[in-house]
Amino acid sequence: SVPLGENLIPIQRGLTTSSTAIFIPFITQELFQTGAALYYGLNALSNNMILCDRKQLKNPNGLILGTPGSGKSFAAKREMTNAFLITDDDIIICDPEAEYFSLVQRLDGQVIRLSPTGKGIDGKPQYVNPMDINLNYSEDDSPLALKSDFILSLCELVIGGKEGLQPVDKTVIDRAVRNVYRPFLADPDPEKMPILGDLYDELLKQPEPEAARIAAALELYVSGSLNVFNHRTNVELNNRLVCFDIKQLGKQLKKLGMLIVQDQVWNRVTVNRAERKSTRYFMDEFHLLLKEEQTAAYSVEIWKRFRKWGGIPTAITQNVKDLLASREVENIFENSDFVLM
Is the CB of residue 79 less than 8 Å from the CB of residue 314? Predict the structure, then answer.
């Protein structure tokens, strides 16, 4: 009975790997990367720091998942702060609940408040044009293909309904988009950048009755009470840390605002790629973009493209089932090597 470590009983037994591991309880799996790695907490077993550089992962796309009140936003704020202090990356936030205002101000960032009245934090007009495009918008010779996909998503949100856009609707919108952008692409002067009203006018010129129906749906957002997105962009998005506060947009405009912010981020990603600079994008309440088929498809497409263009997107949501709603949306899960729960 004396613990001398001598085996006095000549019996041997074979054990599987999992059974043998029980006798070695001090071996834990660690995540401790070097370089510009960020702090994400402590290992529950070893109490060692968890350090991860998402750029070293096969795919830096990430998800922050958890129940309400579990600390999703706090975890995102910690990552934003660490990334701001340690890296040179640009950081852009889509903030549906005005949760990040104080943090962004502390870090001398830029807060763009989008509201139905168009008034920003300082009371001055702040507008973002959903029709903004740059010549690097896509890898193809023509950036219109991806931009047309975005406009289709926007129109689907505007029209609504269970069936969404029909094939004829998509054809009409695509034709109108090409016509509207033709003058700007021939002479890329910022003053020639089209706005939503130009698309509305072009749709009215089309002979199909579907064009008139789509234009009628857009009228509320062009000349009606929700025309905040029918202006050219008048804010400079040149700060390292930019937060789009869309809380005041309300139910009618919030999904539209999130989609437009996502497009603005893509514009920034394409510019930063030419400068060999990474762009981190944090999307709170991400499940709102997954409820409509076209907007979900556009989000999945952007999600796939981000890595190649130097983007590091992070979706924050409590509705995991929305990520499993369809085979297409499941691609977001499959294309995310970083999951924080």
Answer: yes
